[in-house]
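FORM 7B: Structural annotation worksheet

SECTION A. Query
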Amino acid sequence: MKTFVYWLMGERAGRVIVGSWRWLWGLPVEAGGKMAVAVAEESLQSMQESVQQLAKAVAMQVGSYERAKGKYQEKTNELKTFEEQAQLALSTGHEDGARLAMSRAIQIEKLLPALDQQVQQAEAFVNASKDKLNRERIKLEQYKSDMQNIKDLAEVNAALESIAKVNSDFDIGSARSSFEAAKNAVEGRHLTSKAMAELSENPQEKLAADLDQLTLDDQVSQRLRALEAAAEPQRPEPKQS
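SECTION B. Predicted structure
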C-alpha cells in the first residue's frame, strides 16, 4: 500500500499522506514514541532505496560515458588508419586510392570535435553524479547512525515513562502522607478518649475510694503484724535471786 501511494503521489507527498493516516489512527509522530521510531525507520528505508536508484543511474551514466569514450577512440584510430592508407597509396602511385583515404580521414576529423565535446560533457556529468552519490552515501551512513541513536533514546524514554508510571501508580509520598494522617488521627483520638474518661470521673468518689483503700491497707498491715507476733515463741522470764 505504501509503495502504491509513493508511486501515485510521489515520495514526499506519499510520506505526508502516510503520516497523516497515522495521525488519524491516533498515532502522531510528534509523540516521540514507537510510531516516531517506525516513521524514522521507514524514512531511512526510503533514503536507502533512493541511494540505490541513484547508484543505478550513475552506473548507466558511466556506461554511456565509456561508450562515448570508446567511440571517440575508435574514430581517432580510424583517422590514423586512413591517413596511413593515403600516404601508402600516394607513395605507390595510387592517387585515387590516396584521395579516397584522405577524404575519409577529413570526414572523421570534422566529426571528432563533436565527439570530443560529447565525451567531455559525459565525463562532467559522471563526475558530478559520482560526487552526489558519495555525498548521499555519507548522509545515509549518518542517518543510519542517527537511527540507532533514535532507537536507544526511545528505549530510554520508554524506561523513564515506565518509572514515572510506577511512581504514579504507587505514590510513596501519598502513602506516607496517608500513614501520618492515620497515625495523628489515632493518637488524637487516644488523647481525646483519655481526657473524656478523666472528665467523666467524680472527684468525690475517687477521694472516697482512695480513703477506703488507705484504711484497707492499714487494716491489712495490722492483721499481718498481729499474726507475726502470735507466731513468735514466748521467752522464759528470768529467775529472781
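SECTION C. Observations
The helical segments are 2-9, 11-24, 34-91, 95-169, 172-200, 203-231. Confidence is low (pLDDT under 50) at residues 20-27.

SECTION D. Sign-off
Analyst initials: ____
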